[in-house]
Amino acid sequence: MARAFFLSPPSLIFFIFLIFSSITTPILGDEYNYVKQVDPKKMGIRKEKFSHFQFYWHDKISGPNPTSIPVVPPPINSTTGFGLINMIDNPLTIGPKMSSKMVGKAQGFYSSSSQEEVGLLMIMNFAFSDGKYNGSTFTVLGRNTVFSKVREMSVIGGSGLFRFARGYVELSTYSFDITTGDAIVEYNAHVLHY
């Protein structure tokens, strides 16, 4: 006749604990091996700065060399352009004229995301090509209700001299050509960065 192996309740609980602790310990230990504490000074992070940038964003849809092209057209029956997506590589200049000094480009896209008004979802990197900011970028994300006098969007990050950037941009339309759809928009960016 076979004999049954019997463990008392405390012994059984201890036995189950040993089995599960030997299984979970390596898993829990490996789970956080990808995180390390880093000395900010070794990464070149110094005192935080607050900078104000003013430039003009040129959205050129017309002509032989547009800087903004539709990737997805809006439906024919939309009064607000809802559904439109445009990819952009727009010049950023110091003055409102295209002939003024270019300091970088706005690269990204905007899409018409409102059915009630002309409201855009804008996602773009301001990629600088001038002076000490050459090669650095900061990223802007937000809602742009184009017929509002002043709009505001968030600065959500950056690279180069704008690592860990945060802040906001205020924008207002400088000019809009109703015939061509071309626009010039003044941007005032307020950026915290290292």
Mean pLDDT: 89
Q: Spell the H/E element sequence.
A: HEEEEEEEEE
Strand content: 35-45%
Give the overall shape.
elongated
Number of strands: 9
N-to-C span: 79 Å
Fraction in helix: 10-25%
Rg, Å, rounded: 27 Å
Query: What is the tally of helical segments?
Result: 1
- Give the uncertain stretches in residue-range form: none
Strand order of the largest sheet: 1-3-4-5-6-7-8-9
Largest sheet, in brief, is:
8 strands, antiparallel, barrel
SSE class: mainly beta
Oligomer state of the chains in this structure: single chain
Characteristic terms for this protein:
single chain, 194 residues, mainly beta, 1 helix, eight-stranded antiparallel beta barrel, 12% helix
Describe this structure in words.
This protein has 194 residues and is mainly β. 12% of the residues lie in helices and 44% in strands. It is built from one helix and nine strands, in the order αβββββββββ. The protein has one helix at residues 9-31, and strands spanning 49-59, 68-72, 85-93, 102-112, 119-128, 137-145, 151-159, 166-176, 183-193. Strands 1-3-4-5-6-7-8-9 form an eight-stranded antiparallel barrel. A hairpin with a 6-residue loop joins strand 7 (151-159) and strand 8. It starts with 8 loop residues before the first helix and ends with a strand.
